[in-house]
Amino acid sequence: MARTLFLILLLAGLLVGGALNGGFAEEGGPIIEELKLFSKALGVIHEAYVNDVDLRVLLYKAVEGMLASLDKYCEFFGPEKYELIKIHMKGEYAGIGAVLQELDGIPAIRGLQPGSAAESAGLKVRDKILKIDGVSMKGKPIPEIAQLLRGEAEAPVKLEIWRDAENRGFEIVIQRKKIVIESVLDSRMAGRAVGYVRLVNFQDNTAAQMDEQLARLDPAGMKALILDLRNNEGGLLPQAVALAERFLPAGSKIVTVSSKIEEQRKEYAVTGPPPRPDLRLVILLNHKSASASEILTAALQDHKRATVIGTRSYGKASVQSVVPLDDRSAMKITTARYLRPSGEVIDSVGVRPDIELEGDSADGSPVDEQLLKAIEVLKEYM
Q1: Cα–Cα–Cα angle for 107, 237, 153, nearest 5°?
Q2: Partners of 231 in beta bridges
């Protein structure tokens, strides 16, 4: 019993100390009271349950249960998965070179980068990814799965694949490769004075890449721009802010970060005059547009700076922080939410287009009705 009491007191010290250091509790009072109940349950299970139990496993299960009661982005990382997460947190841009989509509720390959590790390994479009390194991917959001496929260059990742076309499943080990991540997938003139840019993510150099493409289209007489954010799962908030600053007047609010943590609370606003104040904007959006793409769209929409066409976006506008529990485990917890300039939440709500319209060719439609509608809206520039 003495060993059990020591572990309970140690656990209480770690949890309360961590809470206070992180700013999550006031004087530890409420947490101390709840820990009494938790410690009693832990002690009874350890001393009275008919079979031997591992106290660390009980702790892991308790934390896992608490996080599961919060929201779908909160998650417990045990030793095996935590090692993967630590690799991803190093910031190495290496992966298998596959673009993902959801098919029948299961993540699947939507596209393959030419010469990528996935293409070299023989993976095909529409192959479904059932497991990554032994962990089931069913029900997990696409951005999280994409993160798991990233890691250190030359590090192996084991995939369990199901191929509908051949009605068979198989396992394959792929060596990750460094990948040059391009934010702009397509850039061209779509009419006499209408430019078209398809933005697929928000990485470190997204704003710089956009500037390059817009400068390339300017000599062709561009006066309006169709910004295609369909299937853009987001990325870095500062890049969404940087793009908003290209088009919004000085002083315009872009996004507010709401959090209990003082260091995370912040309001972003345009600090200088925009380089492109008169460029007419239309944004294409769909249900896979998430995170930074929603933040940019909401800012331009609230300030009446862009017409938004398509379907309601995904509704992922929250911040997840990874908090280590010890050297073998951690938890991912939602610590902040983004609010659009109007003060409304985006998370779990999404951004509703000004013109709601199905018919995204990326979803298999024979005709891109949304792009055609954008061209119609900008017909004076065509």
Answers
A1: 55
A2: none
Indicate which residues carry an active-site annotation.
291, 302, 316
Q: Give the tens place of pLDDT for each residue, 172-218.
A: 999 999 876 678 989 999 999 999 999 998 888 899 999 999 999 99
In whole angstroms, give the CA distance from residue 133 to residue 116: 19
From 185, 113, 114, 182, select the one nearest 149 (Cα to Cα): 113
Query: Tokens 């993976």 — which residue?
Result: 123
Choosing from 146, 178, 210, the residue where a domain stops is: 178
Do 270 and 373 fall into the same domain? Answer: yes
Domain harbouring 153, CATH code:
2.30.42.10
pLDDT tens digit sequence for 119-154:
999 999 999 999 999 999 988 888 788 878 988 889
Phi and psi of 191, rounded to 5°?
A: -175, -175
Range of lowest pLDDT (7-16, 144-153, 271-280): 7-16
Q: What is the pTM of this model?
A: 0.67
The total of structural domains in the chain comes to: 3
Which residue is it, tokens 């090692």?
83
Rg (CA), the chain: 24
